[in-house]
Structure formats: structure tokens, C-alpha cells
Amino acid sequence: MKNRVISLLVLVPALTLAMGSVQAQEKKAATPAAKTTAAKPAAKPVAKKAPAKKAPAKRASTAKKGAAVAAGAGAAAAAAAIPVQQTLTPAELAIAEQVYQGRINCELGASVNIAKDSVNPGYFFIEGKGFKYHMSPVATSTGTVRLEDQHAGAMWLQVANKSMLINRKLGQRLADECMSPEQNQVAEAIKKNPPAALFEGNGR
Fold it and tell me: Which DSSP helix (H) or strand (E) runs through 54?
């Protein structure tokens, strides 16, 4: 009986120590996990980027409208740059009615374009490669249709079967053997039936 009591007295302290060590180990195991969990900072919310603003489509259309207005203003300014010319006489206006207009082909592949001046009745714009003149009709004794740009020294001569452009200041023929469709018909008719005057004086 004494032996049992002694053994119990020996076992109780041992069991108490064993239980204490187990509890201490459990506390140590739980503490790092708690520290690790507390050490992690909370995730910051991701800020959303605002979408890039698109340039309004109206700007492009406004720029196009502005360019069109500027082009129209430039054309108006160019027309206004031509001074108002002297009013022509009825005889000069009658000569202007005989002037062939449009694109007229000349020799060596050249061409001349003749257009009415819508601002000044009886006046014409005559232009081609490297030249542009503002001309008015001049009366002649031979009936030849003649236009002149006195400032530039240029002259357009039109007869039944051809026309030519001369610059007297430069001393050059800028275009020769120019024929409108009507003049071309006359030239072909002359080739087929030469005037009798061409044979006068032969054989002398």
C-alpha cells in the first residue's frame, strides 16, 4: 500500500510537467501564425484609370469649313484684283462677239484658252503655258479680229482660217497656226479650193 502511494506521488508531478510542456508548445505554435497574419497589410484597392477623352469630331468639320471659306475668299479676292476696265464702244463690242472662245489648239502641241471676262463685257482672258493676258478688242481697217493687252504688249490676231499670239515687247510669237473648229473647216476648204488670187502672177 505504501508503494502505491509513493508511485502515485511520483507520477503526478511528472504528468503535470508533461502537460505543461505540451501546452507551452501549443502556445508557441499558435503565436507565429497570429503574428504572420497580423503582419500582412491589407490589400489597397486598385484605382481605375479614367478613359482618355476623345477629341470632338466637330473640330475636323469646322476646320474643313474654314478651309472652304478661305478658298472662296481667295477666289473672290483674285477676281476683285482685276481693275474695272474702260467701257467699250458698240463697234468694239461687235468685234468681241466674233472672238472664238474655249481651248484652241496651235502648232507644235501648244494651245491657247480664251474665256470671257464676266466682270468687264467685251474683255477676254487669254492664257496658255507660261502666259496669261487680259485683252480687249481693237478696231482694224482690214476686218481682222484683234485683241490687245496694252500693258503687257501682247496681241491676239484672228483671221478666217487661223489665229496667232504675239508679244511685241518680247518680240516673240507665243503661239501660231492656232485653229478653232470653225477655222479648221475654213482651212480645209481653202486646201481643197485655193483662192484664184494664189495663182496671180505665175508664169511672169
Answer: none
The pair phi, psi for residue 100, each rounded to 5°, is -75, 135
Range of the domain at 126: 90-192
Q: Is 149:134 a contact under the CB 8 Å cutoff? A: yes
- The string of pLDDT tens digits covering residues 44-100 is 555 556 555 555 545 545 555 554 444 444 434 444 455 666 899 999 999 999 999
- The CATH number for 155's domain is 2.40.128.50
Closest of 180, 30, 168 to residue 101, by C-alpha: 180
Report if residue 30 sits inside a domain. Answer: no
Report yes or no on 65 lying in a domain: no
Closest by CA position to 102, among listed 27, 180, 13, 21: 180
pLDDT digits (tens, 9 = 90+) for 127-174: 999 999 999 999 999 989 999 999 999 999 999 999 999 999 989 999
Local structure of residue 129 (DSSP, 8 states): T
* Nearest C-alpha neighbor of 162 from the set 134, 189, 133: 189
Taking the alpha carbons at both ends of the chain, their separation in whole angstroms is: 186
Residue 202 lies in a domain: no
What is the domain count for the chain? 1
pTM of the predicted model, to two decimals?
A: 0.56
Report DSSP letters for 10-26, one per residue.
Answer: HHHHHHHHHHHHHHHHH
